[in-house]
Amino acid sequence: MSTENFKIQIRKGLLEFCVLQIVSKKEVYASEIIEELKNSKIIVVEGTVYPLLSRLKKSEYIKHEWKESLQGPPRKYYSITDSGLKYIEELIVSWNDINSSVKSLLKSKN
Amino acid sequence: MKKTLTINIGYSIFNIDEDAYEILNKYLDSIKDYFQKIDNDPDIIKDFELRIAENFSSKVSSSKQCIDLSDVKEVIEIMGSLDDFKEIYNDTETENVKEEKKSNKLFRDSSNRIIAGVCSGIAEYFKIDPIIVRVLFFIAVPLNLIVYIIFWIGIPSKDFNPDLRKILYRDKENGVIGGVSKGLSNYLKIDANIIRVIFVLSLFFGGAGLLFYLLLWLFTKEAKTIGQKMNMSGFNVNLSNIEDFIKKKTKNLNSPENTLTKVFLFPFRLLAPLINAFLKIGVFVFKTIFFMFSSIFIVFISILLIIFSTISFKDISPEQDPEFYELLNAVPDYFAIFSVLFLLLTIVISVIISFYVLFKKKSNSYFFILLIFLWIAFLILIIISLPNIILNMQDLNLLPNWIDGNYSFIWKWDDGIMLNKNN
User: Fold this and answer.
1) pLDDT tens across B397-414, in order?
2) C-alpha distance from residue B359 to each of B347, B353, B355 (Å)
3) Which residues, at least 6 apart from B157, have a Cβ–Cβ distance to it below 8 Å?
């Protein structure tokens, strides 16, 4: 178990959560999602996002529509669905639970 | 100066260097293959390509209009290699791979074929190199022909992705005679000189090695494109591999050989042009002989066809030539039609095969299969109906006389072909 492996596992677990979070804020297209994830260092390479987006779409948590763009070809804009909103609320609750329990563990150690 | 290609990726058009294109193509193929395994959604790869196009468009300007190798490398770095995806999706991948293994079926491989992809398909099934199956098939004459045709007819074809497989190619660029040894060395990851020594040594022990060498030469293609050169050493598209490959390419040219290798290879280097010239002559001679035989064969069959069709469809009255009339009546119409069609098909098929062997001109393979099918069908019909006709002739007492040589066909200018009684 290296720290690298630890990071990968954590990122993997949180990737879906983060993507949903970004999409829930506003209508975004794939590249914007990628930029934001890269800026917050959740992902290292861009390609990993696409299968995830497809999976979320299939579970009907997000939907997409094509919009004309001023520069270049039309873009696919993603937005969250009602069931996606419900899902993310659940995710936030469980994230807060885990977060607080991990924090308390770290505190009690000290 | 470099050759460029125009590609359409993510609804945008780019000019791209040929070598950069090959790397990109390989990369996309490997990604497609992987994404299909974890989630069979064509949108994934479409979005993926859209993003690559976005990246590319930031790389071109009016002063730099072409995508080059370093751009492709950068984009692969940004998008991530197979290893990166495997890290994230390894759990789902293993599930799907298991499913795929369960449904492993035998297909003909339409992507890597010489005739119908039977050998390559079998090789794909057993996960071995097609060359092994091909050589085995070649050795097992004539049983292989029947098996091959049965497989050809019975097994559906499928387009495998040849880019993701390790394939044995001849490496003529770095080879001495035909590049067989160097190709084998790339494939087996053994030093080429060891293989060369083994081949040379085998010359003194009956020459099985020579036969093996020639067989491999016959059944392998020369690695010409970058893609093939990568395939021959089992290339897996990721960043370090691409860099390795580019480095190797430039390094290989300068790497000096030690004196022992030089001395050892010297006689073969001398021989190489001779052998190559000899082979070229051999191919030429073979083609000439083949051409002669095939044209004689085709002319022969054509003459047979003309004679047969004039005989069997001749209108003749019993008074004119009673013996011939009886003989004609003994041959039913359907048999005559079968035979004529059979001969016609034989001619067409021979012409197609000759064209293929002589000029490497392939005809539509489905059309060819259909012809072969019909040919076999008519052959079977003829064989089935032949005994009845012969029996019928025997009953009419026609056969003995005819075969004894008492009768012969002669050509008369006014009547055409007639049955003539010898005196």
Assistant:
1) 665 555 555 566 665 556
2) 18, 10, 6
3) B107, B108, B109, B110, B116, B117, B121
Here the tokens at position B288 are: 């000439």
For an interface test with A, give the residue of B24, B37, B50 to mutate (most A CBs within 10 A): B50
Residues of B in Cβ contact (< 8 Å) with A8: 87-88
Give the separation between CA B90 and CA B389, rounded to whole angstroms.
70
CA distance linking residue A6 with residue A12, whole number of Å? 10
**Is B39 within 8 Å of A34 when comparing Cβ atoms?**
no
Task: Return the HEC string of A28-78.
Answer: EEHHHHHHHHHHCCCCCCHHHHHHHHHHHHHCCCEEEEEECCCCCCCEEEE
Strand-strand pairing, A75-80 and A28-29: antiparallel
Report pLDDT for A96.
93
Which of B88, B90, B93 should be substituted to probe chain A, the one whose Cβ sees the most A Cβ atoms within 10 Å? B88
Residue B237 C-alpha from the chain's centroid: 26
Q: Is the dihedral of CA B285, B290, B291, B293 positive or negative?
A: positive
Q: Check if A2 contacts B (Cβ < 8 Å).
A: no
Residues 6+ apart with CB under 8 A from B135: B215, B216, B219
Query: Residue ranges of chain B with pLDDT lower than 70?
Result: 87-104, 110-114, 140-142, 159-166, 224-258, 312-324, 327, 361-363, 394, 396-423
Amino acid at B400: P
How buried is B162 (Cβ within 10 angstroms: 0-12 exposed, 13-18 middle, 19+ buried)?
Answer: middle
| The model's pTM | 0.52
Rounded to whole angstroms, how far apart are CA atoms B47 and B360? Answer: 41
Measured between CB atoms, which of B10, B45, B87 is closest to A73?
A: B10
Question: Using the 8-state DSSP alphabet, how is residue B362 labeled?
Answer: P
Q: Which pLDDT score is estimated for B98?
A: 43
Query: Alpha helices of B142-207 — where are they, by DSSP H?
Result: 143-154, 180-188, 192-203
Distances (CA, A) of B416 to B182, B312, B327, B366, B411: 65, 12, 16, 40, 5
Tell me what pLDDT residue B103 has: 47
Q: In the structure encoding, which two tokens stand for residue B287, read together?
A: 């083609």
Q: What is the pLDDT of residue B305?
A: 84
* Residue B372 burial by Cβ neighbours in a 10 Å radius (0-12, 13-18, 19+): middle
Amino acid in position A32? E
Q: Does A54 touch chain B (CB under 8 A)?
A: yes
Among the partner-chain residues B41, B50, B84, the one whose CB lies closest to the CB of A45 is: B84
Residue A93 has pLDDT above 90, yes or no: yes
* B420 Cβ contact list (under 8 Å, min separation 6): B407, B408, B409, B410
Q: Are the Cβ atoms of A46 and B11 closer than 8 angstroms?
A: no
